[in-house]
Amino acid sequence: MRRVCLLVSLLLVLAACAQPPAPRTLAGLPRTQVLAGRRATELLRQMHGGRFQPPHAVVAEYGRGRLNLYLAVFPSAAEARAALRAMTEAMAKGSAFSPPRPQREQPQRFLTVGPGGHHLFWRADNKVYWLAGEPERVFAAAEELPQPAPGVWL
């Protein structure tokens, strides 16, 4: 009996670990495409002209392009923080995006407008989350994903 309980517990832990970092649905939209691993990191590198290349990434599309999630995973929270700071500073100097501004309710989240619609991005632990799409979907999706740590840390 103990072995069965141990085996069941182990299977539950493994199943929880196997959950994809890009949920099946987000902001009421089904996931319609997902890239992970080398393909996702290469896409992020190309999108940023080689200036942003996390070691691991996931890119997911929801509702056939109505919402996109870009998730960059770094070895540590400090590296994710540095990447987010560099991105935010580069965007503030001028780009196709409006200067990112912290959100009043969540100063750890940044909003910008540019290609692909509204963009909301933040860091949670060692991950940088970036959502792009319709404003109402972007804000709804942000509430469904891991939240940034409280305080101002950029």
Q: Would you mind describing this structure in some detail?
A:
Residues 2-19 have low confidence and may be disordered. The chain has 154 residues and is α+β, with helices and mostly antiparallel strands. An 8-stranded antiparallel β-sheet has the order 1-2-3-4-8-7-6-5, sandwiched between helices. The radius of gyration is 17 Å and the shape is globular. It is 34% helix and 30% strand. The chain has helices at residues 2-17, 38-47, 77-92, 135-144, and strands spanning 25-26, 29-36, 56-62, 67-73, 101-102, 110-114, 117-124, 127-133.
Largest beta sheet, briefly? Answer: 8 strands, antiparallel
Structural class by SSE content:
alpha+beta
Q: Give the spatial strand order of the biggest sheet.
A: 1-2-3-4-8-7-6-5
Strand content: 25-35%
C-alpha geometry: globular
How would the blueprint of this fold be written?
Blueprint: H1 2-17, E1 25-26, E2 29-36, H2 38-47, E3 56-62, E4 67-73, H3 77-92, E5 101-102, E6 110-114, E7 117-124, E8 127-133, H4 135-144
Antiparallel strand pairs: 1-2, 2-3, 3-4, 4-8, 5-6, 6-7, 7-8
